[in-house]
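Hey L., structure's done. Input below.
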Amino acid sequence: MSDRAYWISWYDLPAQESERREYLAWMNGTYIPSVLKQPGVLWGAHYASLPNIAPLGGGKGRVSKHAGAAEVPQGDGFIAIFGAASPYVFANPGRDALHAGLSATDRAMLALRAGERSNIMIEEERIHGPEAAQPQADLLPGACIQLGSFNSIDWRDEEDMARWYAQWRLPSLTTLPGVIRVRKLVSVAGWAKHACFYEFTSLAARNEHFVHYETTRPDMEAWSKEVVRRLVHATPLPIVGERLFAARAANA
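Output:
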């Protein structure tokens, strides 16, 4: 069964190491397995964001505008992602009903999350890179991901963004070493209307092959900068994360 729908949550955790360890053990050992038992959920994965990441182009980054805390929660330290065939898997019964049915201990663990925001998204398009297991790629997302979530500042710019993804960004990554998949997502529910979900074999592969890959095409690099300038991101930079845990549902 193909995964074309995603429930993504971004959040922070307390700085105290003991609380983090307890939470992560619960998240990987209890929470993700419990969500995987929900009908239709195919897989779950948990990532920790990495600091001091080189943005695309290697400079200070291209994001010129990001949403403030008054507009959208700013948690970005961890990302939980679940995959399914349909977005309605995550709307029936829905996050609130799912969490209300948890034990008091489980709800106390969830309460450690700060600055949390969530999206239910569907896949607009995907490409496979040279590192994907073909012909049937593994469902579980890669060891390293980059996940940007954003809105257009002006809706009239969205057709140009669609052309850019269709004509340059996605096709250009089909042969880039280190790339497993790239998925362009659009929202069913949540602040961000758009997201781009990149998967790499490792952080080292991402940094070696992806960061500067547009320098040989200055025309396309200029187009990329212009498209990104017209977006408002949830955070100042796209989030790059390393996988802490991932598992498939028993029937996936």
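The helical segments are 17-36, 95-100, 104-110, 158-172, 203-210, 218-229. The beta strands are 5-12, 41-49, 78-84, 114-128, 144-152, 179-189, 194-200, 231-233, 239-248.

-- N.
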